[in-house]
Fold each of these.
Amino acid sequence: MSRLGAAIVLLAIVAALFGPAVARFDPAAQQLDQRLDGPSATHWFGLDELGRDIFARVLAGARISLLVGIVVVSISSVVGTLLGSIAGYFGGVVDESISRIIDILLAFPGLLLAIALVAVLGPSLTNVVVALSLIGWVGYARLVRGQVLRAREFEFVQAARALGAATPRILAQHVIPTALPAVTVQATLGMGGAILAEAALSFLGLGVQPPTPSWGTMLNGGRTHLLDAPHLTIFPGLAIAFLVLGFNFLGDGLRDALDPVTRVRAG
């Protein structure tokens, strides 16, 4: 399954990088006389309510989805790793303060909190990234904190501390690297979650604004034509489902590959 996930992700990346450049139609070009036409040899995914080529818009929407996923996961993983490392290594009041913040944020459903933040900040792609990053670091911080609590008792960490190594050096060279495999798996799975969250916010009108192609806005535009033109929702819906599934398959494969217990059993 991990190979299938990697293939889906790779296909999405290629589509995002090169798809819009080689697409036969401009994703913003309108052909009103053919609006809502179904899939054909000319328009593989059909046309939407404004006569725009859905295949070209799906390819362009892949850029938005992957961009949001990469930026959100990058910010969340870096912030979460730093705060989780600090909390787990120092303990005491520092750990208690950061842990309480984590508990407070985890008490709210992530998507509802993101909706509230975007509603306050205003609908835009930038604000979607900000909102998802503000809530996304929590999972990484909790994960890394647990890893660091275990790693700080390792003999080589104790030896580095006894030799007088500076705390930033101990964290950077000895403690944080022990958590990187778990963070890598979490980041891969988090890509799917960020893509799904962006699509949900855009579907609600809080994310990417028209006419910029986004899978979420395409779903929103097609919901009023479920009976007479179902292709408006089928193809962007499938794109979201397959890409999220691909990242989940890839994350599961990485978890099995990086888990020493799984490697021992496989051997």
Amino acid sequence: MAKVNILILFFSLFLFCLTYDSPSAEQLPAVQQRIQEESIVINVEVPVRVFRGNQFVDDLKLSDFEVTEDGVPQKVEAVYLIKKRSIERREEERSFRPTTIRNFFLIFEINEYMPRLNEALHYFVMEVLKPGDNLFLMTPLKSYRLLAQAMEARPKEKILEQLKGLVRRDTLTGSAEYRSILSEMEVLAKSLAQLVSGQASLPAGSIDSPLMTMDNLESAGEPPRSFDEQLQRYVELLGRLENLRRVDEANFLAFADFLKNMVGQKYVFLLYQKEYIPKIDPKILYQYIEMYQDRPDIYQTINGIFEFYRRDVSLNTEKIRQAFCDSSISAHFMFVTTPKKDLAGVRSDEQVDDIFSAFNEIARASGGFVDSSSNPSSLLMKAIEASETYYLLYYTPTNKERDGRFREIKVKVKLPDVKVIHRQGYFAR
């Protein structure tokens, strides 16, 4: 399995378990007509988090909230303060029944296993996960589901050890091809940089002589490649990397739809390891173009490399934002940073624009958390702390028409200097 292909796993609904486990309206009587109208009313639930600095504001009342839908004021009919799974306080003009069952999605989009991942898992299982919670674990290789009943049947320590083993094994196996491609690209980029700088011999007028450095020879364990072969191999690896990293917008939308139909509160925690792609310095590529002006094939190959470097992000982030607003989740996007290598003639550039734009929109739309650190345990602790306490607001839209259109929600509170984070809308269906 490859990096970002984990997104495909989002949509495997057959997940493995960790345990065995008539008349017109005018003719209807008034009371019957009222019942019919109420049956089609959309009751909108809006999770809201209010912070002053880093501190959650937990003393708000129903009258403190103002909600608009497409700019039209709405009457808030109930507010519930939720801490973890408990309703700590309620204020109702109309009674609702909040579902506080928790569904956790732990997604590890990483290409190397780090010991601090054990700390993150330990914190989550021992401090966060409770009997009755559902856990979906997604690794670079497979998807798993821990049924709520498992928490009652098995000690937490055994569940923790099994989760650690799965994440470690699947990371080493599932990202093996990705790591291998990056390693070979690094060797080739370094070799091609050395050739043009004169650190390796390049006979004038010849591009077919052996030009493999000792590093290449030791890494590849095969006969030296010519300049042409090295350049073509680098392009081939870029293509393979692109295929492994391709993100399908349809998969994002399918995952949002899957989450929408799930009962209870839904928390998505994505731990994503930053990518550093070993790129040949553009100055070196231009030097090769000048050296081989009589070789249009070389020019075409190098131009193809530039096209890969300039790849556009094709995801419709607004469409993704609306889909995840509609699914009513709390999504948290955590970048796990690692040091990048410093090699002469080789640029280790971050390659996260596509995935970042999509998940940043998902987090923003759901009132989630986005942060970056080399410590995955610290990231997960911050994200969970930011999500465990929240308000649930309920209102009945003044516009009762189910026209399928997306409706923007805005929530304000009657307090200065606070940050209000909330679900940003829904589709009226």
Amino acid sequence: MKKLNHTKVALFAGATALMSLTPNIHAQSSVDALLNKLEQKGILTVDEAKELKAENETNSIADFNAAMNSRFPMPDWVTGYKLSGDFRGRAEEFTSDNPSFADRMRFRYRIRAGLAVELKDNLEVGFRVTSGDTVGGFGTSTGNPLSNNSTFQDDFTKKFLFIDAAYGKWTAINNDDWVLSATFGKMDNPFQLTPMVFDSDLTPEGAALQTTYNINDKNSITFIGAGFVLDEEKANARDPIMYGGQVVWKAKWTPRLESSAGIAAFDIVNRDQLTTANVPYVNQGNTRTTSTTASLLVYNYNPIVADASVTYKLDSFPLYPTAFPIKFAAEYMNNPGAPSGNEGYWGGVTFGQAGHKHGWDISYRYEYLEADAWYDQMVDDDNGAYYKNAPVGALAAGAFSGTSYGWFAGTNIKGHLIKADYSITDGLTFTFTCFINDLINQTPGGVAEPQNHAVHAMADLTWKF
């Protein structure tokens, strides 16, 4: 760390010494608050404050590990713990121009808590539990793969907790030039793609290999490969499996200018086993056979996805506490497994970045995702429109519970996303999200869908730890 002048060191050391007399659980937040104040007063620069916060966090983690070991003795090969999680409260509203649509508002929450245990020889074991509603038609033991939200309903009924992640990880190489790791189990998605391709709550099950090569101090390349099981079939050996690979190049051209570019390819084998009877039918949009028992996917799903972004940082911006990033990004997808309706793309811009106290961001995105660009059960379940009639496959899945219409997310969607975040503190963030969408194909399954315009708005408060 670069040297601070003697006055700054004395001031910081004296204040932190006084704070050390308080319980340790409060000490870290107190020191961070002090550093923020010194930065605001101009006593410390932004870089100096960041460096001191990093040192404080490292010491706090060491204290936490020592306390855990004293209270819960573990084998010698356990070297550390990391506890993390969040709570989110949400109010959301669905509206449509169609008079048949019942405008509605609901309230939901999400709670997640996880523990990662570090072992000698670069090994790690982790798990995370989450809230969530069950998936219709799959009993009370199956949670929604695309959502960790629990809905306020049913006379204060007790809610469910599910396994959100459970994995083992080995980082075989970790030096200045290379990082190589392998993960097995139920994990956070290793692919670096947006919710147009994978919903942010999706935690796939299988194995993944990740490696990063640092070409120099300004350029790096990351390779990702994975195989994920989509279902286990008892009657035959043809389990549906998703394979994928991705290459991402990141560059830091100057302290102000950064860029990223990537290309990925995926393939789902044995897709004929992914019927509406075998796996949850949450999103919709794909072309399916007409059936009253179990609709089948008509086409293959083996898309190629390309993405790129450029970020430029201004030295300052009104009402923003640090250097101000402006990010332009885009993503394109094409599925050669379908003869038409097989493209998806989005483009957008983000101003600022939330996540630290008084940080904020505002973003806009336009997305166009055709019906068979990708398997509809993978994509964002908040991005939807109104169906006046039941889509093909819905009745076979029992998705409409006796009705013939409803709001559904998935593919076959075009529209706008407006989002804003404001971090009230380092651990508390307010988020507003608004999707304004229509169907692309106005006659899915040969049935006209007039007035399918819909708005989905969400207001969130998220506490993280």
